[in-house]
Design goal:
The protein is of the alpha/beta class and 295 residues long. Helix content is 38%, strand content 21%. Strands 2, 3, 4, 7, 8, 9, 10, 11 and 12 form a 9-stranded mixed β-sheet that branches. Helix 7 packs across helix 10 and helix 9 runs antiparallel to helix 10. The longest helix is centred in the last third of the chain and has 17 residues. The radius of gyration is 18 Å and the shape is globular. The termini are far apart.
């Protein structure tokens, strides 16, 4: 079985292991542990110079002593998928150390008949999963031989398909030894993204973008997948990880339906923008970090 190279190392983030480790450690120390131990996190996947600090607020909520398996749900940016795809790789390389794929869980997911496989080129070209691997390696470094990963590439799903994958993954989410990482940036604003929604009542463009994002973040915190779908239909907000987020919301709802004693609490911890848009020729990408705990 092939090994996935860290294709974006050296461009989207440093390929120097010691430098990367110091950088990640700094961002983690800048964040506070206020909503953990996380059973799922939402975190961005842009170049670290833009979103590395924001991502630290999500990863700070992870308790590595508990985690033995990490599911990474990332949106597909380059290939059309109507469902979800699993990795054919045996391990993923990072500048810190290699992460090993959980072949047993891959087999279990394949048996559902709902997953396809991504080829190595697709796997390596996609950044939405790779950008989380160094953070995973850093947070889990004291337990590097005690955990596996389950990368899942998520296509453009209907609400019904999101519910299907939510049901499949809910049993894994219910296990406290499993951590779910939901890879998503938030609003991509500007002509180059073909999205220029602007509500002038909020002031500058960047303030309108933040209000739009925070409306979506509040809906996600309410854990209602139907409300989130309706928000996306109404505003068209270019949240690239909307389908991974939708799967998470559906999985949470499935768990809550099956166990009335369980309470879930999702909270956003940090919000940032790559730049502040003030005129229609500007562009920016928004980033947000969140953590889900069960009480």
């Amino acid at each position: 079985m092939p090994v996935r190279k860290a294709i974006h190392a050296g461009s989207w983030y440093t390929d120097s292991g010691p430098e990367l480790s110091r950088q990640l450690e700094y961002w983690l120390h800048q964040a506070d542990l206020i909503h953990g131990p996380a059973r799922a996190i939402i975190a961005p996947h842009a170049g670290y110079q833009y979103c590395g600090a924001c991502g630290g607020h999500a990863y700070r909520q992870v308790s590595p002593v508990v985690v033995r398996r990490i599911f990474i749900l990332g949106p597909s940016h380059h290939v059309r998928l109507s469902g979800c795809a699993l990795s054919t790789a045996r391990k993923y390389k990072t500048p810190l150390y290699d992460l090993h794929i959980d072949s047993q869980v891959n087999g279990e997911l394949e048996m559902t008949g709902q997953f396809e496989w991504m080829d190595l080129d697709t796997d390596e070209n996609e950044h939405s999963i790779e950008m989380h691997l160094p953070y995973i390696a850093k947070v889990m470094e004291n337990y590097k031989h005690q955990f596996t990963i389950v990368p899942i590439l998520v296509g453009s799903l209907s609400p019904e398909r999101e519910a299907c994958y939510g049901r499949i993954l809910s049993s894994y989410l219910g296990d406290p030894q499993n951590l779910f990482i939901i890879s998503s940036d938030f609003c991509h604003w500007g002509h180059r993204f073909r999205y220029t929604y602007y509500d002038r009542s909020y002031g500058n463009i960047y303030q309108s973008i933040e209000e739009l994002d925070r409306l979506g973040m509040n809906i996600i915190e309410n854990l209602n997948p139907t409300d989130f779908t309706n928000y996306l239909k109404k505003f068209g907000n270019t949240i690239c990880g909307r389908h991974p987020i939708g799967i998470l919301l559906q999985a949470v709802q499935e768990l809550l339906r099956n166990d009335s004693r369980r309470n879930a609490n999702l909270k956003f911890l940090k919000y940032a923008q790559s730049s502040q848009c003030r005129n229609m020729n500007d562009s920016s990408v928004s980033y947000a970090s969140a953590a889900l705990v069960f009480e």
